[in-house]
Amino acid sequence: MKLHLNQKNIPLLATIAVFLLIYLAGSVLYSNFFSLRVFVNLFIDNAFVGVIAIGMTFVIISGGIDLSVGSVVALAGVLAAKMMHDFGVHPILAFSICLGLGAMFGMIMGCLIHFFELPPFLVTLVGMFLARGLAFLVSLNAIPIKHPVVNAIIDFGIPLGFRAWLPATAMIFIAVTLVGIYLQHYTRFGRNTYAIGSSEQSAILMGLPVGRTKILVYTFNGFLSALAGVVYSLYTSSGYPLACVGLELDVIAAVVIGGTLLSGGSGYVAGTLIGVLILGLIQTFITFQGTLSSWWTKIVIGVLLFVFILLQRYLSKAGARR
Amino acid sequence: MDQNNVLIDIKRVSKAFPGVLALDQVNLCLRGGEVHGLMGENGAGKSTLIKVLTGLYPRDTGEILFEGEPFSLSSPQEAADHGLSTLYQEINLIPALSVAENIYIGREPMRFGRIDWKQINGDASLAIRKLDLDIDVTQPVSSYSVAIQQLVAITRALEISAKVLILDEPTSSLDLAEVAQLFKVIRKLKEDGIGILFVTHFIDQVYEITDRITVLRNGAFIGEYETQKLPRIELIAHMLGKDPETFSLEQTAGKTQQEKTKTGQTLLDVKQLERKGSMMAFDLTINKGEVLGLAGLLGSGRTEIARLLFGIDRSHKGTILLDGEETVISSPRKAISHLFAFCPENRKEEGIIEDLTVRENIILALQARQGIFRPLSGRRQSEIADKYIELLDIKTPSDSQAVKNLSGGNQQKVIIARWLATEPRFLILDEPTRGIDVGAKAEIQKLILGLSEDGLAILFISSELEEVIACCDRIAVLRDRKILSELSGEAIEETNIMQVIASKDVNQ
Question: What are A176-185's pLDDT values in tens digits?
Fold first, then answer.
């Protein structure tokens, strides 16, 4: 089969190149860097980021943005912990309630965006403050999660050999990624998000269900944010109202580095997966380096983001010239 | 052609908007296997009729029959379900998605609950080949030219099983070769029995492709004609609302300033200026103290010339000599620095800033030229504003009145005043009298003549022939983005202008 170099694939290819480059550099510079364990840790440590990034990819491709995700993670985590710790609710029920509330939260934001034609930036900014405030209303302090069922979930995992081990949280991340890829490429919902993000006017005139798709996108993202909250609370064994402040920006960075256009209409879930791994890889790299402050992560991400935005700008201009 | 094969029969449909009767008892009869031209000048009601037909607007009275059955639509989506597809001038496709997906999105074939990409790409290739087009359907639509995008949109419409195709000015951004390609497809569809409603303002194209023409004017139904039996001059007469029989009787009334002995020097000498897809190469000279008129139907290239001269659009070829020196006018800013001024066609959108006062609106261009770091003093502002309020006789209680409270004619004068305040050498007026009452029109015409006597070079664009004739010393007549000829002196007559517009193009 002939290899098509579609112009829209260039950002994705650039993402893969960057990932390989960093991975190669780390492997050459540090022993132990090139190991299954380090690689699997990328999935474990970034599971909660990744789960939201998948949802955010849909949001951004549809031409929107969601700033509320970090706060929803904190709210979901602290709410689940509170229910289990103070009221003795069974963990499965507590988590389910949180997921339902997360989806509802997203749906309400989606409805506001669609029916009142409010800008997503503002609506989700409101959502961000609201969810953060509610998280503090639930508890001012971190609540530990100790429950036999929770411990069982945390301890559950598939041994991969080479001292590597795939825990439940990483499995959730991988599962969500696969579901995301399926939704994006093989369902009308997924294709409609592209259409809306590329040209909403055309999508309306083509008779696509614009409103329903938009609301569904935010509902899906709200659900995934809550799921990320569950993953985060499993990862830290606690619920903490101040968790994940500013996470939304990391997530957006991962999506953009993953090759999704911030203006909408173009991008891939698979690209986002690599974008998330790149963020994790940079962190790992700096940990291995040992002497640099961890804030260097932010600097590198900033530079990388800048390069990718320039690339996108260049590509969209080149596209317009044709 | 089967005469009884009527697809759409619009009978006495009326539609009123607050203050305007947009459609007044309009009829239209579209048969299967014909290309039907819908013609009319600005405000004739073409777009309104299409919007009523496709369910975007409800109609007030009248009925629409579709294949003999009364039918009424409430949304464009429903129209598509009935096999009624509309293609607009701006192409409504999703630029980022592939050609194949654009044809099928919303109706993707599914297999085992998932989209069947193989079938989509295969079907799309077949569908696109039916229009004699051979392109890679997996590439994004945005990577193809506008003409091909147009054909992709048609393919989509056909795949939704179109019986009726409404093409709303589909050729306005295509070049000649692309138009030929589109027409080939249209002829093919016609043979397949599809009824095509073709809206355009290109006279040559109407005669090339249509079988029948319906003419509207000011919302009223003028008539349905067989294209072959309708001489061009009559079509133009119907569109403009002149009786072709009485052309010769109409004398050049009000043509008094013919004797104006203007020995103006050449200000602008335009040579072979061209912008592909918007204006064919043209020559034009504009003299100091002279009013040059551009006459032609809507879309003939009048505004395009103005935009080129003012640097809003850039030319691809040709030169402009200003005072004998070659000058590149690359932006409106450049044009303003050469002391050009441009009153655009769209007063509300491009000219007036409604919430600012008369004074602020008048000094706007002058201040812009000075730069924000050298503000005009309040007193100087008032002086300038008052000067022009008096000069142009702008009826306003004071110079601090918000412009939105003024009448249309006075708003127009404010815009002219704004540009006069910059003391220009060259003034472009694009439809300065549109939408204002008769008295104000006469005043603005008088003003134009007065300004030219003071040595100002003026380019005057208007769709009303009487007005062009009354104001201009010379008239360039345009059709289909080309200057056909120039009339001056005695030759400036309505009949002459219309004959030039109707003339067959010798080059084709």
Answer: 999 999 999 9
